[in-house]
Amino acid sequence: MQIGIPKETKDQEFRVGLSPSSVRVLTEIGHSISVETNAGDGAGFTDEEYRNAGAKIVDTPEYIWNQEMVVKVKEPLISEYKFLQKGQLLFTYLHLAADRKLTEQLIDCGTNAIAYETVEQPGANRLPLLTPMSIIAGRLAVQFGARFLERQQGGRGVLLGGVPGVKPGKVVILGGGIVGTEAAKIALGMRARVQILDVNVERLSYLETLFGSRVELLYSNSAHIETVVKEADLLIGAVLIPGRKAPILVSRQLVKQMHPGSVLVDVAVDQGGCVETLHPTSHTNPVYIEEGVVHYGVPNMPGAVPWTSTQALNNSTLPYVVQLANLGIKALDLNPALAKGLNVQNHRLVHPAVQEVFPDLVN
């Protein structure tokens, strides 16, 4: 199969769809890989490394997008809509529930779009292609949150770890899944006080075995959320409902009651976000202040550490890329997990969760 690897166009998105080692695996089994010039530079992979792995280096995105399958990291932007083709396989993160315009475009052009984030293995919420980036995003959420708590960055000047005689900062995490768990690990490592809220009692029990008494675990309801959010120095949104928009858990009125200069990091922003006052930002302009609170809403947080995140993503995506390269769309018939990743096919919106968000687009 002919596979194209474009250079990502999202603001400061330095990850790349395939690393040179992944390209080598594909070329050794007979597939043709075209990589856009400098596509891997931001992640530390040179054009020469791609050539040595068997790829063709091309300086025109039109050529890259003219391949049978395109493997990316982030969803196509408006500037890339013109490249989408009927019958082409597109394998990338899509997050369509938060992007009606892209959903309509994929339906109109007839692209077969498979989303990393909805590939699902048997078992509750086992999302193998979302997991590695969730781990990284969870860890980065605290790293970035600690940075923007600094007074010079607009924060209230709180050191998460505190010092002897001064209490540490308080980190509140909404959601105890992978993002929330990884965020808690880093926050504990910084010696912060940590609270996690979740609606899944079994998950809370697991977190108790993991963290013991070091983390306060609360059932997530409106009363508990209202109580803990007001006192948070750093609030992390880590809510995930696969394929669907994240529910709004924190209202504008509640944000108003937070400490001035406290920081809000919503990892769920790529699925619409769980905080009413938060909207997507970028690595170039990552924060804004609203209701006196610093808001961080970068939807591609792992793009800040592209050398790590590209390799972590490839470790999970490569087996699926190989299956698609070998069998094309027929791979979905043989792999139920990959089939659940299909969002749009032959001008039709097919993923049930996205259909619920856009019922008028279902035909």
What does this 3D model show about the protein?
- This protein is of the alpha/beta class and 363 residues long.
- It has helices at 20-28, 47-52, 61-64, 100-109, 131-148, 178-189, 201-211, 222-229, 252-256, 306-327, 331-334, 336-339, 352-357; strands at 2-5, 32-36, 56-58, 69-71, 89-92, 112-115, 170-174, 193-198, 215-219, 234-237, 263-266, 287-290, 293-296, 342-345, 348-349.
- The strands form two sheets. It has an eight-stranded mixed sheet with strand order 3-2-1-4-5-6-14-15, sandwiched between helices. The chain has a seven-stranded mixed sheet with strand order 9-8-7-10-11-13-12, with helices on both faces.
- Helix 1 (20-28) links the parallel strand 1 (2-5) and strand 2.
- Helix 5 (131-148) packs across helix 6.
- It is globular.
Give a quick account of the main beta sheet: strands, pairing sense, barrel closure: 8 strands, mixed
Q: State the assembly state of the protein chains.
A: single chain
Parts with pLDDT < 50 across at least 5 consecutive residues = none
State mean pLDDT (0 to 100 scale): 95
- Write the H/E string, N to C: EHEHEHEEHEHEHEHEHEHEEEHHHEEH
Q: How many angstroms does the end-to-end distance come to?
A: 31 Å
- Count of helical regions: 13
Strands, count: 15
Biggest sheet strand line-up: 3-2-1-4-5-6-14-15
In percent, how helical is the residue content?
25-40%
**Structural class category:** alpha/beta
| Gross geometry | globular
- Computed over alpha carbons, the radius of gyration is 21 Å
Q: Beta-strand level of the residues, as a percent range?
A: 15-25%
